[in-house]
Amino acid sequence: MGFVNKNSFLFFVVKFLFLFAIFYFGTIFFIGLAAPGGFYSSFFSHYFDYVSWLKISYLKGASIIASLFGYSTIEEPGYLIRVIHARGIIIAYDCVGFGVMSFWAAYVLAASIKFSMKLKWLLGGLFLLWTINTLRIGLFLVAINKNWPMPFNIDHHTWFNIFAYGIIFIMMLLFNYAPESKSKQQ
């Protein structure tokens, strides 16, 4: 019995690492295809540039959050969002959060549960990670315009990683102890 458990855990780890590498490095590869120069593909850039779609969604979300604090914003080329006549931020590739999203997606998809449950957990977790990233970007835009200091002098990327992996840890606990995770049906 112990041998089977060790093998199933080892199989999970191998699947997780493989999927994480595919998602993480695949995204870096896709960024290269969508960015002019190098291996640029106009077809891919036009139809499959999901990283830019995420960046645009963060711009829209940050604008909504800034409006809750009474700020009007404008979007400028280069994924820049600015409070009108004030400071702004650029949504760079580091801001997308594809590392934490890749981690969560690999974790859920490596599990041995029904595909329908994987899909629910995958989409729910990705949406939650997108939401906290949108909040982080929107609040950072407000913070730089209100001259709020970063707590403990820790930059906003580090705060996002702390919160994101904290959320992932909680989601992992919920995922592992959810009734549908107990049945190991594929």
Top keywords for this entry?
186 residues, mainly alpha, three-stranded antiparallel β-sheet, 3 strands
Describe this structure in words.
The structure is a single chain. The protein is mainly alpha-helical and 186 residues long. It has one domain (49-182). Helices cover 69% and strands 6% of the residues. It is built from seven helices and three strands. It has a three-stranded antiparallel beta sheet, with helices on one face. A hairpin with a 3-residue loop joins β1 (73-76) and β2 (80-83). α5 (115-146) runs antiparallel to α6.
Assign a percent range to the helix content.
Answer: 55-70%
Largest sheet: 3 strands, antiparallel
Write down how many β-strands occur, each being a DSSP E stretch of 2 or more residues.
3
Distance between the termini: 20 Å
Task: Report the β-strand fraction as a percent range.
Answer: 5-15%
How many helices? The count is 7
Spatial order of the strands forming the largest sheet: 1-2-3
Helix and strand sequence: HHHEEEHHHH
Rounded average pLDDT = 89
Write down the overall geometry. Answer: globular
> Regions with pLDDT < 50 over 5+ consecutive residues?
none
- The computed structural class is mainly alpha
Oligomer: single chain
What is the rounded Rg?
A: 19 Å
**Structural domain tally:** 1
